[in-house]
Amino acid sequence: MSSWSVRAFGTMVAIVIIMLVIMTFAPQVKSGILAPVLSPNVSLRQSNSSSQKILLIEPKTKENGISFNLTSKETGTLLIGYLGVSLPKAIGNPSICPSSRGDTCFEYGDFARLKISEESDDCSRLEWTSHFANRLEDCFNLLPGHHWYGGGETLLQEWPIEKEPRVETPTVAGDYLDRQGGPYGGLVENYWLISTGVSLQVLEPTPLYISWRSRDGHKDKVCFVALDEAPYLRSENLTLSYRVCIGQNIKDAHQRTLDKQRLPKPTDLPDEKMMVEPFWSTWAQYKTNVSQEIVLDYARRVATEGFNRSSHIEIDDHWETCYGEAVFDPTKFPNPKSTTKSTVFEIYMGISKYYHV
Fold first, then answer.
1. With 0-12 CB in 10 A as exposed, 13-18 as middle and 19+ as buried, what is 273?
2. What's the burial of 131, exposed, middle or buried (CB within 10 Å: 0-12/13-18/19+)?
3. Which residues in the chain come in under a pLDDT of 70?
């Protein structure tokens, strides 16, 4: 065999070895396609449809974050975003980290990690974790014709929500009549629906702040932020975790989320009397000036004036020593049990922030 033949044979052997190494160690992605390094394609497929939704995740080497592009062959763009907005430039670009089959993982050294897990044909979970960051942020574009709904009860309720800008605010229940108490009332749900047929649900233990159309460079974005500061408790590891689900349309996306019990469903029916018969609230007459004696006198008056067929008496406010304690103020209510035994009505209390039991 000539020296040329030996060299050619050696080159072929080397190529085969390199190909075997690449096939063995290169990252496998959910769509079954061996994507280029740092550019995996993640597929979300409708379980009852032949149509395909593609989620393209691609690191941006100049900005060290990760682009997010969820598209449909039939309708085009569903959701576009940028992940890792607040990552410091000093940590550099991400690398692909080891992950279980069906997952995609990016890590920035030991500073932060992003894991994308396919939970079902129509839902994926994205989760950032960091031992060092005090802020993790993902932003999504508010595109023309794409409308967002959800989040929580506010004093000035705009639908869709992007009509009114929102400064970065913790998503915690409060008193929206108190200007210092934040924009939310007693009902907050970290769940949003998008008119393109996408749902987004932020998961525990994320210390969530949210904003939209509020900052320079973010005028056309909605941003989800995990922030390690009050009113949330500090934690050893910061987490930003959320689930993205897709459907044929906005109703279908919502139904799929409910059907998979991503959101808890009621386990029983409420008392029918609460729906069809009147109830009496101490707030109407007494505001915060309530006591055991006042409540019993109020109940007697309701009964003697011909309203026996009523649902219940509601002790609205200031029956606790402080909001959220869920214990009767012993000065105002020295014997709470006797209150319920001394009236024909059931007694309900308002609980901070304004739930009822």
1. middle
2. exposed
3. 1-53, 60-62, 102, 179-181, 216-217, 260-264, 352-357
pLDDT, tens only, 70-120: 888 777 889 999 999 999 988 988 888 887 776 888 999 999 999 998 888
Q: Locate 311 and state its tokens.
A: 């649902």
DSSP secondary structure string, 40-80? Answer: -EEEEE-TT-S-EEEEEEEE-TTTSSEEEEEEETTTEEEEE
List CB contacts of 244: < 8 A, sequence separation 6 or more: 44, 55, 70, 79, 123, 124, 125, 126, 198, 199, 200
Tokens coding 12: 């072929």
The single-letter code of the amino acid at 75 is T
What's the predicted TM-score (pTM) here? 0.67
Compute the 3-state secondary structure of the chain and give helix, strand, coil in percent, each to the nearest 5. Answer: 20, 35, 45
Q: Give the H or E element holding residue 251.
A: helix 250-259
Amino acid type, 195: S
Pairing of strands 280-281, 166-170: unpaired
Residues 6+ apart with CB under 8 A from 251: none
